Amino acid sequence: DADVTQTPRNRITKTGKRIMLECSQTKGHDRMYWYRQDPGLGLRLIYYSFDVKDINKGEISDGYSVSRQAQAKFSLSLESAIPNQTALYFCATSDLENYGYTFGSGTRLTVV
Amino acid sequence: AQSVTQLGSHVSVSEGALVLLRCNYSSSVPPYLFWYVQYPNQGLQLLLKYTSAATLVKGINGFEAEFKKSETSFHLTKPSAHMSDAAEYFCAVTASSASKIIFGSGTRLSIRP
Prior knowledge:
The complex is a heterodimer of chains A (112) and B (113).
Chain A: E1 4-7, E2 10-13, E3 19-25, E4 31-38, E5 42-51, E6 54-57, E7 64-70, E8 73-78, E9 87-94, E10 102-103, E11 107-111
Parallel strand pairs in A: 2-11
Antiparallel strand pairs in A: 1-3, 3-8, 4-5, 4-9, 5-6, 7-8, 9-10, 9-11
Chain B: E1 3-7, E2 10-14, E3 19-26, E4 32-38, E5 44-50, E6 56-58, E7 64-68, E8 73-78, E9 87-94, E10 102-103, E11 107-112
Parallel strand pairs in B: 2-11
Antiparallel strand pairs in B: 1-3, 3-8, 4-5, 4-9, 6-7, 7-8, 9-10, 9-11
């Protein structure tokens, strides 16, 4: 099994629908992150969490919300999806001892 | 605040040629620097990282990068390109293990037969 698992892998949804992207990890890391990737823009941080009771906005949090249900689970929600939220979404984890992230395989979301 | 700039959104080299992907950083504190690789339809994989030890860092698949403080650069190189190196490469920076990582916009590497 992968260290960081994202579900679903692909999703097509309609404008205005609520959608949740899920991330679970077996690394035992406290820190979890949600990024979106758009061509030519690299990865931009949406939200991050340094422990279960800690949630922080990233650079592009508008239109998104998150829930940290447990150390191992971090979900991203789009309350009312819009077409410019079409992107590739990545979850990542890290800890204090090792620099760098472990990434999931990504969720490709299309909003039509 | 930290930032990285990757020069060239697309680089194309011949198989067997030198690979050079450029990254310049900006940081108000001593930085920690990374290169990640993303193969098609996959997540990002750590290629190598600089964490204030040796300035020349060796990574996986024959890649290496040199931290040059005077030039604020962390360029990625590989002496001889292989077809399997075709991917997107991201340079990234952070201030510490307690901080979030800031990514560059990426460089797509193509390899010509």
